[in-house]
Amino acid sequence: MISTESFLSDSKSKSIFITGATGFFGRSLLDFFIKNVIEFKKISILSRDPEAFLANWPLYAKIPGLDFIKGDVENFVFNNSHYDYILHFATPASATMNLKDPTGMTNVILNGTRHVLNFAIHCKASHILFTSSGAVYGVQPTDLSHIPETYIGDATGSAYGEAKRLAEIMGCEYAAKYN
């Protein structure tokens, strides 16, 4: 486990690989780094379409140490760079896909997570952060003001929630096996 303080304390010597950084959550994190003048040795961002992202958000093209890698989370080509941290945010957060193509939703989440975890081994990352979702708990009971970590919940019927739960388990299994 790593704290935010230790994550940021020696940032200039660290390199980060981020999936999903062109989405709402990931872009918010990039904005945090920029606004707080947090510098990293290198930040590599996986994107299916970096040209379109940079056309919409040209500010990111001017940031030193920020580079874009074109690829899909399920099958991007591993590069030979070392990354200290991997931040895995990529996921199809689509209610329509969840309803109309639950198998596709599940496959993207699980195959993408597996591929990112294998990349973490390949590039010898020391830490990986996987963002899950409250959907793993299902509908929150009205009498529960906060969801404790021990709450099992019931995401039955949500391919998104169940796939995120399985991806969490996969991450724990990789951590136990590969440290």
Provide an overview of this structure.
- The protein has 179 residues and is an alpha/beta fold.
- 40% of the residues lie in helices and 13% in strands.
- It has six helices and five strands.
- It has a five-stranded parallel beta sheet, with helices on one face.
- Helix 5 runs parallel beside helix 6.
- The protein is globular and about 45 Å long.
- The N and C termini lie close together (12 Å).
The averaged pLDDT comes out at: 88
Indicate the low-confidence ranges by residue numbers: none
SSE series: HEHEHEEHHEH
The counted number of beta strands is 5
How large is the count of helical segments? 6
Strand order, biggest sheet?
3-2-1-4-5
> Based on CA inertia axes, which overall geometry fits?
globular
Largest sheet: 5 strands, parallel
Pairing-aware structural class of the strands and helices?
Answer: alpha/beta
| Helix percentage range | 40-55%
Terminus-to-terminus distance:
12 Å
Strand content: 5-15%
Rg of Cα set: 17 Å
